[in-house]
């Protein structure tokens, strides 16, 4: 006898805000009537922290301190023990999304060392000799829009051999002048990062210009912390020997789930940076780094 | 003829033809010819049919070749013939059926293309052109690495990744393994096949719900477009790969469309509000996915491919996306790759939102700024590496730029076009751009500014882009639109000044061919002649013309399009020398045929112009001389028809002698084409009859000599024909014509010749490729011949009825088919002739020719000769009847023959004579003996006899009728 259990949310994009009601239906499909010992639905929100392997040795002392941080946890009974008729059964439910106490519901974020995730879980208990069924479904929480208004402030930059740091032999560098600007470094997460880059001069032809989106995750507490920067995505905006003096658009859409408004708590931090990477045809790699502040409006 | 004891006595019935004629037509009702023709479509009434029939119907059979002049049958059915009309409706019905069954998407697409307007030349027409033009023999490679876009799939590494994401990622990993393929050493065809395979696997992946795989395929394909090795193939590669992108765009759009089609399909003019959340979310997902594609080019192409899907998300989506994508292309370093990316974007833009002109313009302006990159180091290095010349490289741009400009120029206001021109001037008249402007802008626009353009072409820097190409493009516009009258000559002079300096014959020819049209359109003989002279001068050295036959042919076609007056055409000094450049036989004949076709179509008046005649004879002779043993029958037939068409247009008016000498000349020139000879004989016979008409039947000594010359012409021409029936018919016809012209001895000779040819008639002949018995044809001919013999007077030196006897002897000696009654049938039909000959006044006679009636004046000896002959014939017939008793089949024949002999006796025999009357009764009985007679016919015969018997001079028939019994009643 096969039974399928599924959770369907009302909203197609599964996005909810604090204070809203997560609504949907639990669907059960079985050919014959089904005996059960109750169906329960639980909602969990949790922050998972993890230490990178390189940090583990150093911070062994507080290794245990990176425990998951629960944000929300509640459950309701959808149906009491009884019988479900054969065919398709839909049981609607509503779940208020309200945090316990003064805890903040952080925005959903899938990272490497920090993960913030919200799930709905449905459990169907069955009598002896039959396995309990369970099904979980992630939903997405967007934090409340920030009150303060952001005024975009353009950031100009200009890269020449002289502006570079970390250069081994400055004399061997080819001459170049790359100018540009980002329309803002405080970005609205739902809107793309924009700006312009312009190659004014370059002795060696350009091979590629890329935008690298980097997440900087920090876990730890006052005693010590681990800070790791990893790439989220890399977008090429120019390929080959681009024409000089022509502004090339900078445009990057912030990927969903993998980005969230910049987050700073006592136990962990999630920050983002953007690197403008210019690769020359002789494989010189020039990077200009910009810290970003993401927010939701 | 063997003499035999006559068992019957023949007496012909006396006839009064006048009286009989009057009895037959008491009211003299004229017969009306109805309009109805069973093969004609109902509504078509066109006077053209008359002309077509005149041209097409000749004595030879009509042609099946398409190049032949109008076929009388098809010209009768003017318009479309009903069969192909059915076929057409059927296919269109089938098409509409399949489209209604097939995907909705296609139908919608068609609708949208229509929205663009029919005057916008769609991409599909360019497609094939590009594929055919940009080819390579070099080896190509496809480099597909399915998993290299690491940015696309964000790094896993967390246990918290949801299950769905994880399986998705695993799926990606699976694909990555071993999916890095590099295909080397592909020929162009292989390459196209591979791409098509990818297209197929895209569709398969899509239909099996592997959307990620589908996306990967598309990304990999568009990545191929950044590879510019084997650069001369790049435009074709672009075409092949954008096909895949189109497929993808359609799939995505249709899928999202169907997600919204519940409960009822979206209207075509849907708005964002009509789209449900799920569809929006799916659509949004696609865009997020595409936004994270690592590499620039695939990201650009794939987003452009699904540009249309923006309609599901927001009203202004497309409007916002187009400029962004346009700007994004600036990041493409390779100018060629960028140009084609722009072309694609413009194409999609035009399809989805033709009203958004700004980004089109932005594209072209951005493109202009990248022009200086072409002369940059990177490009030059690449060209050097691939050993590609700069002009060839620049040509690679033209499809893209042409397309973009076409989009820009489509229904664009005049000022914009003028601005483009100004820009071009600002860019130091960049040749490449100028060329595209002239190609893409409306010909009328270009034509009115032709002088400006010429100035700009002059100012162009010579480097890279050859000027003759520019003039070629200008010429193309001028061929369809007219520049101001006053400027035309200057334009031609300026252009030709440059063209004539082009050294490479192929380049020269390509350009000259285009300008010939302009010249023909606006100028007269003199200028065209000059142009032709120049072409000859360029193409003759080193036999350069051998490489340029198609262009040379097209020059001829264009001239023929504008010059229909052949006297003008042939008075161009250089026209015939130009024709002499076609030295390859097949091409030469093709050209001659095309000239002939135009001649036949447009030469409406008969001509005697020596210039035309000489030239046409020359052309026809060329066609004729191409015939050899290997020429196909169809080809021969079509050539013959063309030549015949010419011969029919030649007329020297009253100068009959010249016409005859023309025919003599033509005969010697076209001796290998039988239908032409047949036509010549007809022409000469007609000539003789026209002479007779002019002289009103009374020939003078001179005209008599002339018509005898005509007869002589025919007499010596006919034997050279191989078809025996043509020969027979022409002998008879020429004999009749000779007789009509009072050339008795000539007529005699023709008829004698016909009789002497008779034994040669084979028992079977091939009719339209099938072997058929010749018997029926022969019988027809003999009956016709017999009818003529009535008026042919006996030759004074030969015996009485010399020709009749000769014919009958031939008939007797001819080896007829076994079991055939043909011989007897001839005998039976000879009887009416003999009966007619024994009348005092003949049924018909020829003006100024004394027939036997006058020669013999009813001499009893003559009459008894006739009677004797009849008796012999009847004896023979009766003998034959006796042999037909063997079986059912022969009984049937016996009955039929007996009945027809009975009929002849009744009509022509004098039944007052008892013996004859008895014979006829016996024949009646014989024919009814075995019940093979049709009772209906018998009854009607009896009725008719009864009717006749009422007349006083036929009263004796009532006796006979008493004794004729109907079988059924006995």
UniProtKB/TrEMBL annotation, chain A:
Presence of keyword Heme: no
Single GO BP term: intracellular protein transport
Record GO cellular component, one term: endosome
Quaternary organization: Component of the commander complex that is essential for endosomal recycling of transmembrane cargos; the commander complex is composed of the CCC subcomplex and the retriever subcomplex. Component of the heterotrimeric retriever complex consisting of VPS26C, VPS29 and VPS35L; within the complex interacts with VPS35L. Interacts with SNX17 (via C-terminus); the interaction is direct and associates SNX17 with the retriever complex. Interacts with SNX31; the interaction is direct.
Similarity-based family: Belongs to the VPS26 family.
Function: Component of the commander complex that is essential for endosomal recycling of transmembrane cargos; the commander complex is composed of the CCC subcomplex and the retriever subcomplex. Component of the retriever complex, which is a heterotrimeric complex related to retromer cargo-selective complex (CSC) and essential for retromer-independent retrieval and recycling of numerous cargos such as integrin alpha-5/beta-1 (ITGA5:ITGB1). The recruitment of the retriever complex to the endosomal membrane involves CCC and WASH complexes.
Protein name, as recorded: Vacuolar protein sorting-associated protein 26C
Organism: Poecilia latipinna (sailfin molly)
Automatic annotation (TrEMBL), chain B:
Subcellular location: Endosome
InterPro entries: VPS35L
Example GO biological process: endocytic recycling
Keyword Protein transport in annotation: yes
Record field: compositional bias (Low complexity): 57-67
Principal localisation: other
Family: Belongs to the VPS35L family.
Protein name: VPS35 endosomal protein-sorting factor-like
């Amino acid at each position: 006898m096969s039974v399928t259990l599924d959770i369907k949310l009302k909203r197609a994009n599964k996005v909810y805000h604090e204070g809203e009601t997560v609504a949907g239906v639990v669907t059960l499909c079985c050919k014959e009537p089904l005996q059960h010992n109750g169906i329960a639905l639980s909602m969990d929100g949790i922050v998972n922290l993890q230490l990178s392997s390189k940090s583990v040795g150093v911070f062994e002392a507080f290794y245990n301190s990176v425990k998951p941080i629960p944000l929300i946890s509640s459950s309701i009974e959808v149906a009491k023990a009884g019988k479900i008729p054969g065919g398709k059964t839909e049981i609607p439910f509503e779940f208020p999304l309200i945090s316990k106490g003064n805890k903040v519901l952080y925005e959903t974020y899938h990272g490497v060392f920090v993960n913030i995730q919200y799930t709905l879980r449905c459990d169907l208990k069955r009598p002896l000799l039959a396995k309990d069924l369970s099904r979980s479904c992630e939903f997405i929480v967007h934090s409340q829009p920030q009150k303060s208004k952001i005024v975009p402030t353009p950031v100009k930059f200009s890269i020449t051999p002289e502006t570079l740091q970390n250069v081994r032999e400055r004399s061997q560098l080819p001459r170049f002048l790359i100018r540009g600007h980002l329309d803002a470094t405080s970005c609205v997460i739902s809107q793309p990062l924009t700006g312009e880059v312009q190659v004014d001069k370059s002795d060696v032809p350009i091979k590629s210009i890329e935008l690298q989106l980097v997440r900087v995750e920090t876990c730890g507490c006052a005693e010590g912390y681990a800070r790791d920067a990893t790439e989220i995505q890399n977008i090429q905006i120019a390929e080959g020997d681009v024409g000089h003096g022509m502004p090339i658009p900078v445009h990057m859409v912030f990927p969903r789930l993998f980005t969230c408004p910049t987050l700073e708590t006592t136990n962990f931090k999630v920050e983002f940076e953007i690197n403008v990477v210019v690769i020359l045809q002789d494989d010189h790699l020039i990077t200009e780094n910009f810290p970003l502040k993401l927010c939701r409006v | 003829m063997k003499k035999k004891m006559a068992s019957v006595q023949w007496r012909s019935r006396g006839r009064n033809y006048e009286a009989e004629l009057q009895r037959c037509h008491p009211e003299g009702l004229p017969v009306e010819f109805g309009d109805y023709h069973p093969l004609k479509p109902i509504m078509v009434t066109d006077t053209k049919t008359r002309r077509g029939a005149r041209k097409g119907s000749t004595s030879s059979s009509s042609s099946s070749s398409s190049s032949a002049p109008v076929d009388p049958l098809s010209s009768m059915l003017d318009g479309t013939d009903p069969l192909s009309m059915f076929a057409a409706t059927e296919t269109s019905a089938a098409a509409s059926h399949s489209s209604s069954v097939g995907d909705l998407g296609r139908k919608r697409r068609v609708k949208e293309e229509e929205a663009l307007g029919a005057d916008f030349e769609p991409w599909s027409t360019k497609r094939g052109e590009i594929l055919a033009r940009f080819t390579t023999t070099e080896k190509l490679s496809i480099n597909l690495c399915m998993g290299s876009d690491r940015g696309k799939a964000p790094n896993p590494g967390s246990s918290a990744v949801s299950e769905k994401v994880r399986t998705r990622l695993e799926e990606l990993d699976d694909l990555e393994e071993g999916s890095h393929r590099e295909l080397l050493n592909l020929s162009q065809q292989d390459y196209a096949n591979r791409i098509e395979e990818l297209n197929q696997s895209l569709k398969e992946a899509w239909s099996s719900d592997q959307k990620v795989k589908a996306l990967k395929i598309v990304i990999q394909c568009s990545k191929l477009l950044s590879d510019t090795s084997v650069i001369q193939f790049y435009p074709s590669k672009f075409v092949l790969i954008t096909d895949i992108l189109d497929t993808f765009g359609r799939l995505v759009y249709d899928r999202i469309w169907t997600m919204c089609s519940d409960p009822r399909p979206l209207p075509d003019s849907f708005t964002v509000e009509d789209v449900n959340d799920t569809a929006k979310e799916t659509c949004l997902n696609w865009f997020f996915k595409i936004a994270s594609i690592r590499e620039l080019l695939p990201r650009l192409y794939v987003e452009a491919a699904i540009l249309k899907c923006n309609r599901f998300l927001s009203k202004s989506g497309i409007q916002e996306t187009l400029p962004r994508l346009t700007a994004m292309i600036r990041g493409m370093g390779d100018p060629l790759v960028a140009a084609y990316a722009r072309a694609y974007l413009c194409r999609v833009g035009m399809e989805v939102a033709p009203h958004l002109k700004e980004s089109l313009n932005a594209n072209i302006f951005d493109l202009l700024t990248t022009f200086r990159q072409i002369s940059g180091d990177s490009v030059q290095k690449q060209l050097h590496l691939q050993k590609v010349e700069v002009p060839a490289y620049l040509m690679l741009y033209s499809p893209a730029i042409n397309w973009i400009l076409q989009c820009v120029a489509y229904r664009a206001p005049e000022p914009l076009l003028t601005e483009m021109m100004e820009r071009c001037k600002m860019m130091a008249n960049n040749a490449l751009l100028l060329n595209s402007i002239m190609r893409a802008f409306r010909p009328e626009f270009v034509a009115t500014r032709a002088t400006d353009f010429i100035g700009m072409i002059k100012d162009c820097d010579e480097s890279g882009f050859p000027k003759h190409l520019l003039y070629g493009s200008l010429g193309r516009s001028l061929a369809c639109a007219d520049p101001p009258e006053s400027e035309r000559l200057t334009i031609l002079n300026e252009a030709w000044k440059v063209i004539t300096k082009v050294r490479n014959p192929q380049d020269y020819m390509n350009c000259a061919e285009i300008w010939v049209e302009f010249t023909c359109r606006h100028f007269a003989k003199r200028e065209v002649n000059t142009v032709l002279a120049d072409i000859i001068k360029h193409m003759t050295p080193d036999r350069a013309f051998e490489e340029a036959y198609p262009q040379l042919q097209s020059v001829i076609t264009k001239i023929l399009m504008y010059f229909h007056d052949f006297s003008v055409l042939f008075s161009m000094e250089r026209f015939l020398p130009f024709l002499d450049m076609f030295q390859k036989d097949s091409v030469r004949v093709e050209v001659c045929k095309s000239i002939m076709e135009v001649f036949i179509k447009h030469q409406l008046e008969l001509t005697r112009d020596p210039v035309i005649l000489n030239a046409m004879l020359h052309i026809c002779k060329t066609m004729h001389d191409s015939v050899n043993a290997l020429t196909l029958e169809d080809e021969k037939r079509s050539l013959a028809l063309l030549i015949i068409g010419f011969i029919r247009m030649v007329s020297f008016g009253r100068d009959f002698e010249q016409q005859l000498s023309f025919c003599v000349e033509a005969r010697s020139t076209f001796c290998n084409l039988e239908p032409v000879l047949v036509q010549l004989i007809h022409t000469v016979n007609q000539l003789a009859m026209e002479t007779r008409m002019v002289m009103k039947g009374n020939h003078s000594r001179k005209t008599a000599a002339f018509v005898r010359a005509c007869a002589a012409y025919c007499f010596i021409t006919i034997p050279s024909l191989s078809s025996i029936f043509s020969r027979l018919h022409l002998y008879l016809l020429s004999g009749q014509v000779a007789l009509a012209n009072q050339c008795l001895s000539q007529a005699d000779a023709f008829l004698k010749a016909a009789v002497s040819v008779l034994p040669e008639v084979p028992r079977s002949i091939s009719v339209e490729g099938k072997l058929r018995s010749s018997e029926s044809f022969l019988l027809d001919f003999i009956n016709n011949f017999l009818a003529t013999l009535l008026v042919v007077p006996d030759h004074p030196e030969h015996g009485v009825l010399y020709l009749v006897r000769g014919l009958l002897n031939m008939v007797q000696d001819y080896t007829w088919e076994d079991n055939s009654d043909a011989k007897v049938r001839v005998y039976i039909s000879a009887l009416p002739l003999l009966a007619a000959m024994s009348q005092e006044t003949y049924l018909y006679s020829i003006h100024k020719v004394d027939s036997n009636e006058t020669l013999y004046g009813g001499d009893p000896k003559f009459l008894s000769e006739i009677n004797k002959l009849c008796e012999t014939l009847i004896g023979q017939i009766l003998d034959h009847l006796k042999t037909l008793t063997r079986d059912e089949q022969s009984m049937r024949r016996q009955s039929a023959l007996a009945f027809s002999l009975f009929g002849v006796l009744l009509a022509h025999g004098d039944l007052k004579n008892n013996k004859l009357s008895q014979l006829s009764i016996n024949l009646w009985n014989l024919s009814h003996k075995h019940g093979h007679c049709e009772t209906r016919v018998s009854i009607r015969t009896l009725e008719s006899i009864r009717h006749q018997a009422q007349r006083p001079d036929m009263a004796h028939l009532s006796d006979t009728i008493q004794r004729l019994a109907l079988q059924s009643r006995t």
